[in-house]
Amino acid sequence: MKTLIESGILLTPTERIEGGWLLVDRDRIAAFGRGVPPAADRRIDAAGRYVAPGFIDLHAQGFRGYDLWDPSDEHFLAATRLMASTGVTAAMASVDATEEVCRVMRPRIGRAGGGARILGLYFESPFIAPDKRGAIPLDRVQPVSMELARGILKASEGLLAMITIAPERPGALDLVRLFRRASGPCGPVVVALGHTEATYDEAVAGLNAGMTHCTHLYNAMPPLHHRDPGAVGALLALPEVTVEIICDGVHLHPAVIRIAVACKGVARTCLITDCVSAATVPVVDGAPRLPDGTLAGSVLSMDRAVANVQRFGGVSLREAVEMATLTPARVVGMSGSKGSIAPGKDADIVLFDRDVNVSMTIVGGEVVWEGR
Ligand SMILES: [Zn+2]
Question: Measured on CA atoms in the order 58, 63, 69, 75, is the torsion positive or negative?
């Protein structure tokens, strides 16, 4: 089965191709180009729309009333289908590091199920700073323990893709090395620095021990001070580490988004949503909040993040798309199969207009959502 998407504006890693075509053969991208398109079994007219790789949300907890960790498969699938309606073709599920959650999530990893495909698990606890836990309940924060860490790895059985650690906690660097040596569904487990009170030196020690990424830069960590730059200073100053940002207009001031993009570039700054179901936490002033005002995730969607970062971060549409596709794919070691329009890559495709209103989402060659 060959599907041709024609007459669109293709966004490839290096080009914007007006009047381009894209050929999908079963679940892979077969070819793309401009001019006379090849023959196909099915044709999709993308006239006036952008044709881009599907958005990859590395940090999602739930969406629009449904939790990804909900034991109900119906609720889980509802969340992934709603995510797909906003252009998400792949995501990491940010869930609690418990045996029960791992058991619920195991059969869901890697399957599309008519919506966004969940690639793996992202644990933000238990090895974080108690005072920077944000909305994570205190009983989910545990002392650093190699025994507990080994137990978490055993329970997740290769499903853990990313884990957040506060590197300043005593013994944390041994944990970083342990998790970094472990294999996840996309490659080595990504160890992210976050929910932390680390000083600059402690953050650098974490990066030297094997941390490669930062969980929601700026949020849940002390601010940068010019004589005490802290984790934020280390993350912005050191070139290799990648960061994720929440561009909902609530979590971050546009100026700090511009600073992140200026320091890291679009190749090392991911757009994430950190979206939650918001089924039980009220949304106040644009974001879910605990009664004391603490932000508890977001109600952001990836299509709005791509739209917002152009305005907030001063980037082009092509760069914004890269921050939602190729950059997150690189973070988790999946850029060989996802994150860009290239022959041989997974046919995860999204069509949208210039305001990033998504009109079609294709996961593994299957149209999973079609709108206006
Ligand atoms: Zn968090």
Answer: negative
Domains recognised in the chain with CATH numbers: 2-51+342-370 (2.30.40.10), 55-331 (3.20.20.140)
Which residues face 8 on adjacent strands? 20
Are 277 and 61 in contact by the 8 Å Cβ rule? The answer is: yes
Q: For residue 124, what are its two tokens? A: 């933000």
Among all chains, which residue has been given the structure tokens 């100026």? 255
369: helix, strand or coil: strand
What is each CA distance from 319 to 186, 273, 322, 323, 340, in whole angstroms? 24, 17, 5, 6, 12
Structural contact between residues 300 and 312, judged by C-beta atoms closer than 8 angstroms: no
Q: What is the pLDDT of residues 72-99, one digit of tens each?
A: 999 999 999 999 999 999 999 999 999 9
Cα 225 to averaged position of ligand 1 atoms, centre (Å): 22
Total Cβ atoms within 10 A of residue 158: 15
Under DSSP, the state recorded for 106 is: G
Each residue of 252-295: pLDDT tens digit? 999 999 999 999 999 999 999 999 998 888 999 999 999 999 99
> For the chain, what is the largest distance between any 2 Cα atoms, rounded to a whole number of angstroms?
63
**Do residues 273 and 59 make contact, with C-beta atoms less than 8 angstroms apart?**
yes
The pLDDT tens digits of the residues spanning 143-174 come to: 999 999 999 999 999 999 999 999 999 999 99
C-alpha 134 – ligand 1 centre gap (Å): 7
The verdict on pTM exceeding 0.85 is yes
Ligand 1 centroid to Cα of residue 57, in Å, is: 14
Half-sphere exposure of 90 (CA within 13 A, CB side): 27
What 8-state DSSP symbol labels residue 133?
-
Residues annotated catalytic, as ranges: 274
Expressed in angstroms and rounded, the spacing between residue 321 Cα and the centre of ligand 1 is: 23
How far apart are the CA of 274 and the centre of ligand 1, in A? Answer: 7
Helices (H), the chain: 73-84, 99-105, 146-156, 172-181, 200-209, 230-237, 254-264, 302-313, 317-324, 326-331
